[in-house]
Predict the structure of tRNA (cytosine(38)-C(5))-methyltransferase.
Amino acid sequence: MGETKLRILELYSGIGGMHYAAELANVGAEVVFSVDINTSANEVYRHNFKQTNQQSRNIESLSANEINKLKPNVIMMSPPCQPFTRVGLKLDVEDSRCSSFLHLLEVLPHLETVSFVLMENVVGFETSEMRNAFTKALKSCGFYFREFLLSPVSLQIPNSRNRYYLIAKKFTNFTFGTETDIMTAFPSNSCDVNMPSVEQSTLEPYLEKSFADEELARYLLPAKTLVKYWRILDVRQRSDISSCCFTKAYTHYAEGTGSVLQHDSSESFREKFAEFEKDGNVAHLKPLQLRYFTPREIANLMGFPAQFSFPENTSLRTRYRLLGNSLNVHVVSSLLKILLE
Ligand code: SAH
């Protein structure tokens, strides 16, 4: 009581995954200002965080002076990841989508109150020029840092989402690892993030409890998609303990964008697929009720709390796209605890 809260500046805020992670960590830190340029993401953000000063801005327009006035202690950010991904052509620092991040590196030495940084990015960032520029800027400003490649699977959550994370703090070093390590597990001496006694969960508790028929129809895979892509679909059962990473192209591209679910678990997947393979008649697959995971289910797997919701006017396509760009709240929350405690 009476203790002043750490002030968080949330950059590239999207639908607020970082904000939920800060709430879940419960370490006395609160988002005071968040910025994103995407208006549909910002609508969702404001719908859920009515109290937060959320601005639709290009991050390149933020000056050191303006940031200093907000007196932030912590920066949490997920800069755009396309520059480092294969489909994004790996243009790295040359990519125009890096320019706002490069701008932040220029601003960093002039920030007076920031002593903690947490950033999330895609796998591939760790070997980029951008990563070298970032860690160099951090060091020259007196920050110590640690890097991680982590997936929610290591928190017993049945969803893969392997991502790069960097945490940095000023003045005092971390008590685990070294600067050259890229850790693939949470450090064992850090608070309560390792829960070896907890069993790996199945998908079931993350799924919606009931579906009206017309609701289910919305999510069933079209016969055309089944015929064309059945070989590459990642079909999961309710009892499975894993699922593939849901990306922003989920339901739009079939390959590698996320798992689909056998909705009716009373039918035998093997039998039905064997029948389908024999005569190519897609009707054999119908009883399986193969469907997409709903946005709510993906949000559950990503650790968004029950009170998170989309404004009614956000289209289904946009919901998937925004969730695909977001992050696992539990993983970030654990890292924030390690950083701030
Ligand atoms: N962590 C967020 C998602 C980050 S995805 C979440 O939980 O949803 C990257 C975000 O960066 C996107 O929302 C994109 O709109 C935003 N962005 C990209 N370039 C930007 C810029 N120059 N200024 C502000 N936001 C930008």
